[in-house]
Structures are given as C-alpha cells and as structure tokens.
C-alpha cells in the first residue's frame, strides 16, 4: 500500500528528504517555505508552464533527468513539496517504463 504519512512503512532508501513537523498556518508562512512556483501550484491552484520543470535547474524533472538520465526513475518515492509526505512510488508512476 502507498503510505500517506512520511516514513510509514517506507524502506529507508525511499524516505523523502524533507519532513515538516508543523505545517505553516498562514499564506505568508507558506511563502517562506515554498518557492514562488511551488506556492503558485500548491496554494494558488496554478499550473506550471509547459516544459518548466524539465528545463529549470532545481525543479523535479530537470533533477531527475540529471541524476537518473530519465524523468521516469523506477526507484524511490515522490513526496509532497509542501509537507514531505510520500505520495507514490516511482515504479507506479504512469509512463515509468518510458524515457
């Protein structure tokens, strides 16, 4: 089963890096935790521009391609950028077998 809380039954090598013990309560507090782009998507219901994550250093798809030579790694777990909770395993991601 896919865990809903950080660390609940995740193998050690699949734990997300960031875990927030206490979530921010105000929008200003979220702005101090998230990048402007993350805030737009997670708090303002925005969307990324096409290709943004793949072309921008520090963003998810860019870093996956740099580290794994694919934006669809088959190992690890994706985590929420806001709270650090594990969302799903890479092996279950749609397109995980495509490059």
Brief overview:
With 99 residues, the chain is of the alpha+beta class. It has helices at residues 27-33, 36-42, 52-55, 60-68; strands spanning 77-79, 86-89.
Describe the structure.
The chain has four helices and two strands; from the N terminus they run ααααββ. The chain is α+β, with helices and mostly antiparallel strands and 99 residues long. The chain has a two-stranded antiparallel sheet with strand order 1-2. Strand 1 (77-79) and strand 2 (86-89) form a beta hairpin. It is globular and about 35 Å long. The model is unreliable at 1-17 (pLDDT under 50).
Alpha carbon gap, first and last residue = 26 Å
- Helix vs. strand class: alpha+beta
For the sheet with most strands, the description reads: 2 strands, antiparallel
Name the average pLDDT: 76
Strand content: 5-15%
What is the strand arrangement across the widest sheet?
A: 1-2
- Record field, number of beta strands: 2
Task: Estimate the global geometry from the Cα principal axes.
Answer: globular
Number of helices: 4
Secondary-structure element series:
HHHHEE
Low-confidence stretches: 1-17
Radius of gyration: 14 Å
How much helical structure, as a percent, in the residues?
A: 25-40%
Topology:
Elements: H1 27-33, H2 36-42, H3 52-55, H4 60-68, E1 77-79, E2 86-89
Antiparallel strand pairs: 1-2
Give the tags:
single chain; 99 residues; alpha+beta
């Amino acid at each position: 089963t896919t865990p809903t809380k950080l660390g609940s039954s995740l193998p050690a090598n699949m734990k997300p890096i960031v875990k927030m013990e206490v979530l921010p309560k105000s929008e200003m507090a979220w702005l101090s935790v998230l990048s402007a782009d993350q805030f737009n998507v997670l708090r303002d219901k925005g969307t990324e521009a096409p290709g943004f994550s793949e072309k921008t250093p520090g963003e998810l798809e860019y870093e996956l391609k740099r580290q794994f030579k694919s934006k669809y790694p088959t190992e690890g777990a994706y985590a929420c950028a806001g709270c650090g909770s594990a969302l799903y395993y890479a092996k279950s991601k749609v397109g995980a077998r495509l490059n």
